[in-house]
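Now for our specimen.

. . .
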Amino acid sequence: MNLLSTDNHYWYVIITTVLYGTITAGGQFFVNLGLSLFEISIYRALLTSLMLLPVVLIKREYLIKKEMLFFFVVYGLIGGLLELAMFGGIALGVHVAVVALLLYTQPIWTIIFGRLLLREGITTKKLIAVVIAMSGIILLVRPWGIKNAKSLTGIVVSLVSGVLLSLWVIWGRKSVLQKQHFVTTTIGWTGFSVIWLMLLWPIFYYFFPYAVITGISVNLPIVFLLYLVIYAAIGGVIPHLLFYRGFKKIEASVAGILLLLEPISASILAALFFDQPIGLDIILGGALILLSNYFVIRSRSSIIPTL
């Protein structure tokens, strides 16, 4: 086995997680601009799909096969709900730190689902890495210092996002096991996510007829659209392609732990653009997360053969 090649796949996932840090920060940016929960979710998924569409049209082998249609319908539902849950806490006024903490319960769920759905082993090293990483996240977001969680609904939604993120990781791994190209996987889940989001919109509008949740505008300012295109490229197209490429040799449970790098990049972006200082808690928490990632990378038992 080519260990250098395997290490490259780890780096694909690590780079992905750094870029994924733009998702949370970007969500806050667009909420501040006045975009609704559904606008952020739909536009991000739609623009990601549209950017990949020319590639699929040129290379027809990347088109979704008939036998995989139901798989991507389910993956799109998971993706669509994840988009809503991921931005839902922020849109409902929950502190970003709470959202991050609840979202990143995902390694626990990923290890459980990885065992149940993919028959991946739960090793002592994985459990230790999860404990170290979760300790880092607790230090990173300081839940004991949170005093104003405005919405219980938002907190529940944020917790659900952790479970959905875990299922999203599992389904991504399943797509690789079924020999789907990473371009196919990316455009498959984002495309069907858009469809599901449009189908779910009337239901959400009936129960939540609030502009911050279900407001939709097709006449956004050009500069907003430009921001959304950049957002979809940096937080969607590039990291998604790298992520599914890395899945060729990385277990879902390991990828779930590596995703814990995302809060570090999100914290740095929040400090740069939203004046949230990087204190000792962030430094210590980030160090523990990096340690857990190093622990996983050096665990050669997590390497699986090339598919």
The CA atoms of residues 6 and 292 lie 18 Å apart. The chain has one domain: 36-300.
